[in-house]
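Re: Re: token formats

Sure, here are both.
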Amino acid sequence: MKLVLALLIISFGAGCATMRARSESAGRGYWPSEQRWSRAAREALRDPGTWAPAAGAAVIAVGDWDEKIAEWAVEQTPVFGSPANARSWSDDLRTSAHVGMLISSLAVPPGDGPWESRLGRVVVDHGAGLTTGIVTGLLKDGSERVRPDRSDDESFPSAHSSMAFSYASAGARNLEDLSLSNSTRRSLRAGFLTVAAATGWARVEAGVHYPADVLFGAALGHFIGRVIHDAFLGSEQKFDVALRIDGDTSGVALKWSF
């Protein structure tokens, strides 16, 4: 046990030294600039993975369908067969999303940024999950919504859903940095989404969450997962301005790369 702990400490120290060296060579600090945070937040808000489930939660709440759907799901259990199975599957599926995120983080080749070593990428994506869990807990304490099974008042939002979608969001972003065919990337991205969505639905069939809890959790987890991943690991946006003058035409060309 002591040997394992020592190896972990040495590995962590070596990883930090590597990230520090890369940070100095790239001229970027460990903490993202305000511009990077702002751009990451704007892109995350525009992502359908954020606004679509949030809109769905709002529609269900306004239409007063939350309790009806939750009761039907527990009575019929169309996917998992029973509330007990659904509860067990929700844990396993959330773990699968976590493992998938970890594998994708380790699969990306190291880059030049301060957090773009394999260790740094794992730290960032786990940090997104940790942040998601903290925010979810604060919202649970503030909302005090009673669960459908009346077990406690921590129904809103669903932590299983928010965590699974945070992992799925970070995992899907990692796929963008892998050399994959478009069809393979789409399939893997769909796999992340399916696992996260199944995690959320399992919580409804288990009788411990309403659909709006799960949908809001999905929006929250996706948003936080993408913002933190892109702020720390997203590419710099570069603008190139060129003045073109020749015998026939003249003008200013503006281009940007991501």
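Second one below.
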Amino acid sequence: MSTDKVIISCALTGAVTTKKHCPAIPYTPVEIAEEAQRAYEAGASIVHIHARNDDGSPTWSKDTFQQIMNETKARCPVLINWSTGGMGPMQDRVAHLAQRPAIAALNMGSMNYAKWNSEKKQFAFNFVFQNSFDDIVAFAKAMKEHNVKPEMECFDVGHTNSHRVLADLGVITAPFHFSFIMGVLGGIPASARHLAFQAEQVPAGSRWKVIGISRDQWQLAMAALSLGGDVRVGLEDNFYLPDGTMAKSNGELVAAAAKLVALSGRSVASLDETKQLLWPAGDHN
């Protein structure tokens, strides 16, 4: 299938921001599932999900992930992508893979990470986002065990090229699926030039998308569309529509992305087309 098809992913909630930042951010399994439905109906075929407690705090509870999956599948057939990144013991961050989501995020390297302290209203510069090769391989093995496709999250060029290690070990198989996170302080800067360089690192036949943080999202989405890539939007990454107004739902962000796809001369991949692009052998969960 040609690169004129664009897979739209939507990151529904994240783990850090709250309703104080944006009232539309979902917390409960029902709220998250309703946002998944809105995103799907607007054109997203994949939803990336972090679990939350009802008060908005992050959780790795298997029961909560299962509730989110059940509520989402009751509403729409969108492909589910579980988060595995962030804080917490590895066993907690992989336990929910047994629920066999279609996709799971696989962080591909370590980096210095500036975290915003909302109380002090300043960045904290002493945090290292640590992902050793041992940990990356262990996550990839867990995904392979449950037939979950890794979405390799790359914050810099070295992260992208680290896929070669996993491929040599046989813990990932083609076609590969990359995400380029751009605009995080400590990672690769958000620019079309850097995105093009990242795209050059990807093996033929792979799919890649850009994850632009905050208002860089829309410019980077346009660049990705011109380079043959896919896009991710959603309240985890950015609250604002292209005109600067705050989105009232993830569906609004997906609808805006779909308009950009049409303007680029490409077309939004349907759910079935997305499955064909990511699993040409038809071996998805």
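The chain has ten helices and twelve strands. The chain has one domain: 5-278.
- S.
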